[in-house]
Amino acid sequence: MKIFKYEKELEIFFILLTFFLIFYWTYIIFENGIIKYKNLQIEKIEKYYKINNLVSQVKIKGNKRIHNITLKGSLLSNFQKIAKQVHLENKILSIKPDSLSKNENIKIRLESLDYKELIILLKKLEKYSNISIKTLLIRKRFDNPQFVDITLTIEKTS
Questions:
Q1: How many alpha carbons fall within 13 Å on the CB side of residue 128?
Q2: What is the pLDDT of residues 55-80, one digit of tens each?
């Protein structure tokens, strides 16, 4: 028994409307996810280009020394003077001449440096144009993570 004259048409309409709404909501959800994914990809690409730009700036500036001071005399005695200037003379575990190349090299082991002392030492060494750091090994101390032990190889070019 039919209540309405167009009951069959209404059933078909509501079924189609239900399918339409289900597909439409599914489309909106997926489209929103796709847009978020694309925006995330764009942000990653922009960050990559920013990082790449910064790295290229560092490479360009890294080749130019701020100071053009040359270290005169023995590297070993000069490093001891530098260590004394930055108050690290009691933290030197060993200083050994290292003959890996034709230039003058020394291998230094320092212990219990805090990060600030390490940065000060590296900045002090950086100002000399004829000194280069060949290796730098930094180990965090197990007894106190605020301090590090370092092994450093420095080369003096003529």
A1: 21
A2: 777 766 655 555 668 888 888 888 99
